[in-house]
Design goal:
The chain has 428 residues and is α/β, with parallel strands linked by helices. It has 2 domains: 261 residues, FAD/NAD(P)-binding domain (3-Layer(bba) Sandwich); 127 residues, Rossmann fold (3-Layer(aba) Sandwich), CATH 3.40.50. The strands form 7 sheets. A 5-stranded parallel sheet has the order 11-2-1-14-19, with helices on one face. Strand 12 and strand 13 form a beta hairpin. It binds flavin-adenine dinucleotide (FAD).
């Protein structure tokens, strides 16, 4: 294989980069070993959720210049506010082309309900999770119903309701809870406890018995105006199912992210992969890039686990292999490695300083900041400190940001993938 651009890792970052390269006429292949982090995430894109010390950010774009100033080594500082803004808008347009609509509260964060009944600041969410109507309805102290499916063990409506009640925004709302039962003919099972969100989504995708389910929702909701239901209303047909349920019940129904597998993340993943394929991109799933060979400060070729004797070559390469979670970095007893190119990884040498003893420490855990260091063009350095000129890094493999404590995970992944494509397009 010889293409313009080989992207190693097909998560949200590699896919954003691949779509932008392919859209601009480059031949592009993504090689990806396994599932990406989207399958485990909330499916919302966090741009900047928290100040240090966990104070909530309401208007991330108003804060970005100061944030960049105070975090000079952060990925956002390498490309700045304008690129971040263009990247998020581009991302929304691309998934929209595949029928997935994202909500953004203009330049502000919105606050969607989590499966624990807390509110989480995010910048982009699927419209089934948050939208203008829900936002307006929430402002009038409506009755709210939190509804589960009987036997589904990854969601507890009573926990959601009791935590919502503790929030001053909801303490004047009447919140009811209940569970619907899917007809046996839909599940084919006597014991629904075996069903996970993905099984239930597949059942909903078939689109049958919606009238019956709507009747059950109406009964539980009583006088409520809004009903929250776990995000399992289908992977491919969810827009249609949700609007039918809203029409039949007269309620604003919205989805609440569940424990993994994340159906909301899978919808994003499908939309991105499908868009990449539409543009002629080649996605090779289930193969791992074993090693990249460097000659004269450039990647010469790579080999994969399934085809160790074949040299795969590209003019440009992007390393978007994620963090520890996806195998982009590997932690050994006293060191941390980037396994494909043996790039310089930034981390502290004493293992005891890698984590905080208090799991919920407001400053988070230092290891979240570990990663591959790059120059401002996102080129990394080989183990002798030389810049690798035709290799770019993007997404969770980057150092000097903490996706959890800052609430920047999706924002960095999308914007750095977009910017890596930008750098490649400027050189090709
Ligand atoms: C559990 C979890 C929940 C999260 N929740 C949120 C959230 O709610 N909101 C938010 O904004 N962010 C969230 N994040 C952060 C955000 O989702 C991630 O930062 C982002 O998805 C990372 O994307 P990525 O493309 O960089 O990497 P990944 O999604 O990790 O993808 C990397 C891909 O590379 C592949 N790969 C690895 N090594 C190789 C190799 N050698 N060869 C080929 N392929 C390889 C992996 O199999 C994987 O498919 C969450 C992250 C995690 C882990």
């Amino acid at each position: 294989m010889n293409v313009d651009c080989i992207i190693i890792g097909g998560g949200i970052s590699g896919l954003t980069c691949g779509i932008r390269c392919a859209e601009n006429g480059l031949s592009c292949a993504i090689i990806s070993a396994g599932m990406n982090a989207l399958h485990f995430s909330s499916g919302s894109i966090d741009l900047l959720g928290f100040h240090p010390g966990k104070n909530i950010v309401f208007s991330p774009f108003d804060e970005l210049n100061d944030f960049i100033h105070s975090h000079p080594r952060h990925p956002y500082s390498k490309y700045g506010r304008n690129v971040i803004e263009m990247a998020l808008s581009y991302f929304g347009d691309q998934v929209n082309l595949k029928g997935l609509e994202l909500f953004s509260n203009k330049q502000n964060n919105h606050f969607h309900v989590t499966s624990l009944g807390t509110l989480k600041p995010s910048f982009l969410s699927q419209k089934s999770v948050f939208n203008q109507h829900i936002m307006e309805a929430f402002q009038n102290n409506p009755g709210i119903a939190i509804i589960n499916m009987e036997g589904f063990r990854d969601f507890y409506p009573e926990v959601v309701a009791s935590n919502l009640k503790k929030n001053s925004l909801f303490n004047r709302c009447k919140i009811v809870t209940g569970s619907i039962q899917l007809p046996d003919s839909m599940t084919g099972l006597k014991n629904n406890c075996n069903l996970r969100s993905i099984d239930i989504s597949r059942i909903f995708d078939m689109g049958s018995h919606i009238d019956e389910i709507a009747d059950q929702i109406k009964k539980i909701a009583g006088n409520s105006k809004i009903a929250g239901i776990p995000a399992f209303l289908g992977i491919y047909n969810s827009g249609n199912i949700l609007s039918r349920l809203c029409d039949l019940t007269g309620l604003f129904i919205y989805e609440i992210p569940t424990l993994p597998p994340s159906i909301l993340g899978m919808r994003l993943d499908n939309a991105l992969k499908s868009r990449f394929a539409d543009l002629g991109g080649v996605y090779i799933a289930g193969d791992r890039v074993k090693k990249g060979y460097i000659k004269n400060n450039r990647v010469d070729y790579i080999i994969t686990q399934n085809n160790p004797d074949t040299h795969l070559t590209g003019t440009f390469y992007v390393l978007a292999t994620g963090s520890f979670f996806s195998g982009g970095m590997i932690s050994e007893s006293e060191s941390i490695k980037e396994p494909v190119f043996d790039l310089i990884v930034e981390y502290t040498k004493n293992r005891k300083t890698w984590y905080s003893h208090d799991f919920f420490h407001p400053a988070g855990h230092p290891f979240f900041n570990f990663g591959v260091n790059t120059n401002d063009q996102l080129n990394p350095f080989d183990n002798s400190g030389k810049t690798i000129k035709n290799l770019y890094c993007s997404g969770a493999i980057l150092s000097h940001y903490d996706p959890v404590t800052e609430g920047t995970g999706g924002g960095v992944a999308v914007s750095s993938g977009y910017y890596a494509a930008d750098r490649i397009l400027n050189h090709s």
